[in-house]
Design brief:
Number of helices: 12
Shape: globular
Strand content: 5-15%
Number of strands: 13
Distance between the termini: 65 Å
Bound molecules: calcium ion
Length: about 450
């Protein structure tokens, strides 16, 4: 055997230890995406739901109490997740179902992470166009599965993907269908813990109305949350059985808020506020709470950070891993968009908020808001909306909040929102003009 050139020998001495160290520092990333779920979990203070698996992620990780989506409809929100950009920056300003799409050739999450040596997988719906620009190595269960059937398949596919990664660092995104409408009470025996309408004593804070019909919808929305938690439990169990749990960052979010009046498709708190939890591979952040303004646009920079890369400053978001702690200044304002999601519902709006106030621009005002009309018809995806008779029988300050949503001014500023009651319809102060504790509306469709 001829002697190896000396430079080759030196190179192997230099490179081998570096690669080993790099491998050891490259954890996996699991992103769990709920659908149309506001922060209605035990860890966020909801006592009507049963969410032990999600609560455990919070207990063993960091819980964000002021996390927001960029747009309260699926495709634009998920486009932000995949690009680290606001919808107007990446082009995905409406529903993929209605042929809205990102700008051709745009750089997306799997492109970034594959460059950094990660194997990338997606399970469940993506709902962003064009798929050619979202080149996951593995992609299974492409349907929306709003029927919520065969939920164990998501865990089974996760095991299959992790085996495919074969020890290489991986990014896996799992998109569950709960709690998108229809809000089924139970499907194939799930959830095991059923919430009955008779147990619902309070409306959702931003809805403010509790008729028997709304009560049943809220109970079944909570059943979706319970079913989602069971799905998360099965997925975490699969990760543990793969042997990779100890070396995986687990993120949990929703794409945007629940589909009730004054929530999804609006720029109110009920539409934009989302849960966000991060469980580190170890327990260094266990039990931490964070109140800073964070967003779905911050996820991609966080993943790039974990993977050992450096996110471009051209991205709108920032890493929640290395830039949130310490003395680095964090943002003081956060933005959100809203176009209407599909042509017949077009009603553009933009909002910006700080820790106390939100400003919403309704570009088509004083034209009536089509989202209000959709919800008041209470059909299809909007079936949990409040109908005119329910609104008319509500106290005056609630009627006024709905009237404001129906026909907003062009610009409205509001009190805000980082408090536990944020987004709620607060009691009208005596001898003052009634107001909503939250700002103006939006329009759009579900998905
Ligand atoms: Ca959605």
């Amino acid at each position: 055997m001829p002697p190896r050139p000396i430079y080759s020998a030196l190179l192997s001495i230099i490179i081998t230890p570096l690669l080993s160290a790099e491998q050891a520092e490259r954890p996996n990333i699991l992103l769990i995406v709920a659908e149309d779920a506001s922060p209605d979990f035990g860890c966020y203070g909801n006592t009507s739901v049963t969410s032990p698996h999600i609560d455990k992620l919070a207990a063993e990780g960091i819980q964000f109490n002021n996390a927001y989506s960029s747009y309260s409809v699926s495709s634009p929100a998920r486009g932000s997740l995949l690009t680290g950009l606001y919808p107007h920056q990446n082009g995905q300003m409406g529903l993929a179902t209605h042929n809205y799409q990102m700008f051709p050739g745009i750089k997306t999450l799997p492109k970034y992470l594959k460059e950094l040596g990660y194997i990338t997988g997606n399970i469940g719906k993506i709902h962003v166009n064009n798929e050619a620009d979202i080149p996951f190595d593995y992609w299974q269960i492409r349907s929306s599965n709003f029927g919520k059937k065969n939920l164990f398949d998501y865990a089974k596919k996760a095991t299959e993907f992790i085996n495919t990664a074969d020890g290489e660092p991986f990014y896996l995104q799992v998109n569950f269908p709960d709690s998108h409408f229809p809000v089924q009470r139970q499907v194939q025996g799930r959830p095991h813990n059923i919430v009955e309408p008779s147990s619902i004593k309070e409306s959702l804070p931003y809805v403010g109305i509790l008729s028997p019909r709304i009560k049943e919808n809220i109970a079944n929305y909570y059943n979706c949350i319970n079913r989602l938690d069971e799905s998360v439990g099965m997925l975490i169990q699969a990760l543990k059985e793969s042997g990779q749990y100890h070396n995986t960052f687990i993120f949990f979010i929703s794409d945007h808020g629940a589909q009730f009046s004054r929530a999804k498709v609006t720029n109110y708190e009920g539409g934009l506020k989302i849960p966000l939890l991060i469980k580190y591979p170890d327990k260094q952040m266990a039990g931490k709470q964070n109140d800073k303004l964070v967003s779905i646009i911050d996820l991609l920079p966080s993943f790039i950070d974990i993977a050992g890369g450096q996110a471009s400053k051209e991205l709108a978001g920032r890493s929640l891993i290395s830039q949130l702690e310490g003395s680095t200044p964090w943002r003081r304002e956060l933005y959100a968009g809203g176009l209407g999601s599909y042509p017949s519902n077009t009603y553009p709006k933009r909002s910006v908020r700080d820790e106390r106030f939100k400003l919403i621009i309704n570009e088509y005002a004083p034209q009536a808001n089509p989202a209000y009309q959709c919800y008041s018809n209470a059909k299809g995806h909007y079936s949990a909306g409040c109908i005119p008779q329910e609104i008319q029988s509500a106290p005056k300050h609630i009627r006024d909040a709905y009237a404001l949503w129906s026909a907003p001014p062009n610009t409205s500023s509001t009190t805000s929102s980082t408090t536990p009651t944020s987004g709620s319809i607060s009691p009208a102060p005596p001898n003052t003009a009634p107001h909503s504790n939250d700002s103006k509306p939006a329009s759009g469709n579900g998905a």
